[in-house]
Amino acid sequence: VCMGVPMCCRVAKDHNEPRSQKMGGWCGRLAAAQLNSVEGFVLLIGAVFVSFSSGLADDSILEMVILHMMSRKLYVLCYASDWALGRSTVYLLGVLSLLRLYYFSMMKFL
């Protein structure tokens, strides 16, 4: 989602200790959003794996994955623009899409 962060924010001068230098402002928020996106991707992979394993319909899985990916893109925009309420709301939407996948997968077995 944020692959261009290192290109647009070249501030690390010390290549031995690059994490010791903090980025501020817009670049710092984009870097934090990128790290958060990696964490969210792990949750997405788990939800998709469980959904496919349970035999959930491909269309249902695709709907929720698209909703999750769109919410992640909006999350990065809200994070970069420092809009806290929007960021929390969009993050909740993404988490709810993953929980819906888990819920429908569980209901398939009951």
Shape designation: elongated
Structure class: mainly alpha
Q: Uncertain segments of ≥5 residues (pLDDT<50)? A: none
State Rg.
17 Å
Q: In percent terms, what proportion of residues is strand?
A: under 5%
The main pleated sheet reads as:
none
Structural overview:
The structure is a single chain. The protein is mostly helical. It is built from four helices and no strands. It has helices at 5-8, 25-54, 58-80, 84-109. Helix 2 packs antiparallel against helix 3 (58-80) and helix 3 (58-80) packs antiparallel against helix 4 (84-109). The relative contact order is 0.14.
Which structural traits does this protein have?
single chain; mainly alpha; 110 residues; elongated
Describe the protein's topology.
Layout: H1 5-8, H2 25-54, H3 58-80, H4 84-109
In short:
With 110 residues, the protein is an all-alpha fold.
